[in-house]
Known about the structure:
By secondary structure, the protein is mainly alpha-helical. The chain contains six helices and two strands. Residues 11-15 have low confidence and may be disordered. Heme C is lined by residues 67-68, 70-72, 81-82, 84, 100, 113-114, 118-121, 134.
Amino acid sequence: MFTSKTVGLSLAITFATFVYAAESPNLGTLASAAEIAAYDLTVMPDGTGLPVGSGSVAQGVRLYTEQCLACHGTEGEGGLNDRLAGGHGSLATPAPVKTIGSFWPYATTLFDYIRRAMPYTEPGSLSSDEIYSLTAYLLYINGVVDDEAVMDARVLPEVVMPNGDNFVWAYEP
Ligand code: HEC
């Protein structure tokens, strides 16, 4: 037999269960610090987000030859895929060639892009030192740094890209 007391109690339990369910649907598991770090890849133009580590042009040549040349050609001249070097001064011509050196506004984007996306068939496989080395090499073949250059979180944001001044903020207040 239901009394008003038991109805009240069961309603209270139902409500409590509902509130609990709303707070915790019990789906999925908490992401671990390592899982979050694997997705925390953004490098800002000013270098925020760059990890510790470093790499030289000399180390980059070797890595590029092993892991990038097949798709991007000798010294980034292009092949199966995008050309990565050259094209300087071509943007205002009828046949613009957009490369890292002729087009990209920030050197730091190179680190972000390679870490997130390259090599195409195995993104995420390169260490921070390897990515700094490849970044140094790609800047070198674009004539942006010399062959002695060593990139790290302090030096890379200071690299001035040839086309950097030709970008404007679209959403200036
Ligand atoms: C299997 C072929 C392949 C390999 C190997 C490869 N890439 Fe790529 N790469 C691509 C493709 C395809 C794109 C264009 C991707 C897109 O536009 O979405 C690209 C784009 C790029 C870009 C951007 C070019 C631009 O101006 O937009 C960079 C930088 C780059 N790759 C660097 C590298 C580096 C460094 C390596 C070696 C660690 C590498 N790639 C290895 C296929 C490859």
